[in-house]
Specification:
Shape of chain B: globular
Structural class of chain A: alpha/beta
Number of strands of chain A: 10
CATH topology of the largest domain in chain A: Rossmann fold
Radius of gyration of chain B: 20 Å
CATH class of the largest domain in chain B: Alpha Beta
CATH class of the largest domain in chain A: Alpha Beta
CATH superfamily of the largest domain in chain B: Nucleotide-binding domain of ferredoxin-NADP reductase (FNR) module
Distance between the termini of chain A: 22 Å
Largest sheet of chain B: 7 strands, antiparallel
Structural class of chain B: alpha/beta
Radius of gyration of chain A: 20 Å
Oligomer: heterodimer
Order of helices and strands of chain A: EHEHHEHEHEEEEEE
Strand order of the largest sheet of chain A: 3-2-1-4-5
CATH superfamily of the largest domain in chain A: Nucleotide-binding domain of ferredoxin-NADP reductase (FNR) module
CATH architecture of the largest domain in chain A: 3-Layer(aba) Sandwich
Strand content of chain A: 25-35%
Helix content of chain A: 10-25%
Amino acid sequence: MLVTGIKSKPVYAPLRADTRGRYHLMLGKGPGNVALMRVLQELQSAAPQALGRTRVLLIPEEIPARAAATAPTDALPVPPADPPVSDARPENFAALGLEALRVFADAPSLLREFRSLLDGALMGTRLYVAGPESFIGLAMKIALEFDLNKDEVRAEELGSRARRVYCIHCRATTEDVRTNVARCVDCGSWLLVRDHYSRRLAAYMGVMVDAEAPGELPEIKEVFV
Amino acid sequence: MSEAQTLEVEVTAIEQVTPLIKHFKLRPVSGDAMPAFSGGSHIVVVMRTPTRVYRNPYSLLSPPHRLDSYEIGVRRMEESRGGSHFMHDRVGVGTRLEIAHPVNLFALDKIARKHVLIAGGIGITPFMAHLEDLHEGRVPYELHYSVRGREHAAFLPRILERTGERVRMYYDSEGQSIDFDGLLSNQPLGTHVYVCGPAGMIDKVAATAREWGWPDSHIHWEQFSAPPVGDAFDVFLARSKVTVHVPPDQSLLESIEAQGVEVPYLCRGGVCGFCQTRVLELDGELIHNDHFLSDAEKAKRNTIMPCVSRARCKSLVLDL
């Protein structure tokens, strides 16, 4: 059960603007939004008119609770620390003069809008995706259905590496897997999480790890963080 | 590709379909079925004359599901080196020819959401086989077919039967031309464009598509350039240890083959890259006529496509 060195594991690279594209469609989640801001600034300086043909769909980063909220009451009064100011907040995107900016609460609602945009999109569109790996994978799965090729899509991985794992035994997909061995959400098998990736399913393959010696599990470690 | 892989065929029908184009039907002499092929494939026809051998690529235009015979269309080239004139003037019903097995360098994208086909003149031939595959499929397509005038619209009845409303004709003689901007600026995501026709048309389609942001993976074209004529030159084949003279009207590849040295080839038209050969020494200039090497590769002067490219040189040594 080979785990590493499998070529299907996607490799991502820092996003760069593709000025050969006519329309630009960008999807960002959480920490990925910083990369989108960077690529938009690049686009702004290389081809300013392109921003008027650029649509951005965002899921904002969760703002950590203010330090003051948890500070012990008997401590010296400390001015509450502001959350880290990200220049990738939605209001900063809005200032760029994009064709459209939409903000979503979660991935399913963003991806629904993404799909309907692709339905009406024209040849000449470039797709940029930035965020956690599972978010990229789900976006790529939809892009594939629209026959977007490698020279039309760019993605940068930023944030959690938690995996979507496809149980090769019962075909259920378990979300948010952080460990080398995880329990299938549907059939309960203990699955070894391989690097074997399916773009069509947007998931890594999980193979029963104790099939020959039931209950004998390797050490379970958190590896996809 | 070696001569052993050729197939002997007999011409069973010839029709002059336009003032310049003849339509040939070829049946295997053995009586077996022809090798299966997919839409967009071409064959190389080997023509043996007393003085030289021509090997010209022609697209298969017959339905891919019919393997009792192959059909090709041959346009008589004004500045023919002889191949198309041989087909037009010397080949009759009953003539036997050799052909190489079909090769496909112009297939349709299997997961495309839409196909836009653009043909100029004899460039319609590969699309004839594609239409057979497309007309029962669920993928939308449109065909834009441009010819000099109505009498030059080869195969139009068969096209209309297959495509109905989906073909749009353009007649130069009536001042009609394809609006490439209009056509390529407004296509849904997942569309692929295919063009086969004169070099100017291919360049125009590719350039217009790129202007509208199309990525290269969605732009497909095929053109079999006839090997251009040029100055005579000599080439030394390092591994075979022979010197080959290349006359003005014969290609480098044909001249090498005439010396009995085999070079692997597929398209013989500067498209596929199969005959790419290393240049070991060069005193002079390579004249690259292929569509395969990038400009950067051509500038390196260390590789050549002998099917269509030549040299203007004092000496040239190839790794053959």
